[in-house]
Amino acid sequence: MSELELVRAEFTRYPQSLLSVDDRLENLSPALAKAVGEQIAHALQGWQGPLPDRHFICSTIMDLAFSRQLVDWPTLVAQIAQYTDAVPDMLINAYECASWGYSLRQALSHPRRSPYVMCTIVDLNLMDLAFWRANPNWGNSGFGIATLLFRADENAQQCVTVNVAKTSNFIAEFSIAVRNALADKPDYKLALPFFPQAVTQLFQRLLPDADMLPDLHPRFGHCFGADPWISLVEQAPHASPGQRFLATSVALNGYWTMADITLAADGIFNWREAK
């Protein structure tokens, strides 16, 4: 069986916006680089293995900062390099919450010198926009940075599935796809995105036999692409050796992704609050 193993996972929650209302916009890029760079460095603390060939930054909500040229990507990468050698090489946001799956598929479908791949999911309300604080589609938002280090064998691309809904009823299409993926996998635990009760009830109706990890929306809000990874961080201390998980995300634009994941026996999985 192909293996995609989660070796490190760290989520840092940011209950406050990155900048205060009194900060100058010129401070945005250095502040973002510091937050991301220190996050990556902390997640890789004590790491003795090779650095990954590919390291993606994935985001749902930060496109405005780049499209308005408040943050320049090459400059941001250079600033991140002040904090870590594991600098990201690409920003992916077109697939919103599902961007991590499309990034993994891209990395795993090409030859690699290193068996490791990284994704850092960054969804910070950089300018404290009201739209991102809460929305009828997903309820209250949760903001933070999730850094993920995967160990992948040469056929690990088979562990990642991506697709896009054909109709506007994307939650139902996504749920049916998840149900089909789990049809012959009764021992898997399912990590779903965090949504309000109405969506959670739909998941329960369409996935009655799935062994779902707890919905953490009441505790964290909807944390965009980080949701399933927060679930795995929470579950890691209780996971049995060799337990398999299906990590899933779905975006409002209809993109969705699933990944067949195991947790490394020597893995380190943490979450913390930003200071």
Average pLDDT score: 95
Residue fraction in strands: 25-35%
What is the count of β-strands? 12
Distance between the termini: 42 Å
Radius of gyration: 18 Å
CATH superfamily of the largest domain: Thiolase/Chalcone synthase
H-E string: EHEHHEHEHEEEEHEHEHHEE
Q: How would a crystallographer describe the biggest sheet? A: 10 strands, mixed
Low-confidence stretches: none
Number of helical regions: 9
Oligomer state equals single chain
Helicity range: 25-40%
Q: What is the domain tally?
A: 2
| Structural class computed from helices and strand pairing | alpha/beta
Polypeptide structure, described:
The chain has 9 helices and 12 strands. The chain has 2 domains: 4-157, Peroxisomal Thiolase, Chain A, domain 1 (3-Layer(aba) Sandwich); 158-265, 3-Layer(aba) Sandwich (Peroxisomal Thiolase, Chain A, domain 1), CATH 3.40.47. The protein is an alpha/beta fold and 275 residues long. The model has no long low-confidence stretch (mean pLDDT 95). The strands form 2 sheets. Strands 1, 2, 3, 4, 7, 8, 9, 10, 11 and 12 form a 10-stranded mixed β-sheet that branches. A two-stranded antiparallel ribbon has the order 5-6. 28% of the residues lie in helices and 27% in strands. The chain is globular and about 55 Å long.
Throw out a few tags for this protein:
275 residues; alpha/beta; Peroxisomal Thiolase, Chain A, domain 1; 2 domains; ten-stranded mixed sheet; two-stranded antiparallel ribbon; 9 helices; 28% helix
